[in-house]
Amino acid sequence: SQQGEEDPQALSIQEGENATMNCSYKTSINNLQWYRQNSGRGLVHLILIRSNEREKHSGRLRVTLDTSKKSSSLLITASRAADTASYFCATGTGTASKLTFGTGTRLQVTL
Amino acid sequence: EAEVAQSPRYKITEKSQAVAFWCDPISGHATLYWYRQILGQGPELLVQFQDESVVDDSQLPKDRFSAERLKGVDSTLKIQPAELGDSAMYLCASSFPRGHEQFFGPGTRLTVL
What we know:
Chain A contains no helices and eleven strands. Chain A is mostly beta strands and 111 residues long. In chain A, β4 (31-37) and β5 form a beta hairpin. With 113 residues, chain B is mainly beta. Helices cover 0% and strands 49% of the residues of chain B. Chain B has no helices and eleven strands. In chain B, β5 (44-50) and β6 form a beta hairpin. The radius of gyration of chain B is 13 Å and the shape is globular.
């Protein structure tokens, strides 16, 4: 079963613009992670935010977490064509490092 | 750079046949995961190993799926018999014990005809 739902399902922007993706989840979490998946490939870890953190940055990525609303957002600034991919949020619960993935946002960045 | 290896990359089989997928995790990663990803959806955990022991197989269809990690290193996922609905991407990932970041292999794309 999928814990999280990403919104929007698909996003198309031009190079240089910012892209914002949202994730909502249902149960209490230890951490929330974002992964990127290029078409037909495996997933690549982007960033992790713990349940006691509210914001985190990594390069052009900014992640926020609101545990009261059970939601997170991923902002990619100054997007590039190479950012074209599907982006998934994944929630970490319990002590066994188990992740539950959301449904994903397909991002298309055009020149 | 260390990577998770998977083979084959693509597999086409007929329904009722047996298929097997292989995964070699990053050296030192005691935790290994098998996921199934249906087109257009997120990965769904099938089974999680800690060394050679199964930690979670609650979503593994045990009537037809089996997974093993005999020596606590590489792992095999088997489907017998394959059904049309098994067509999907099968992803393997690994991580350090209690590590949060998972490292994924390139996946095996299974098509059942």
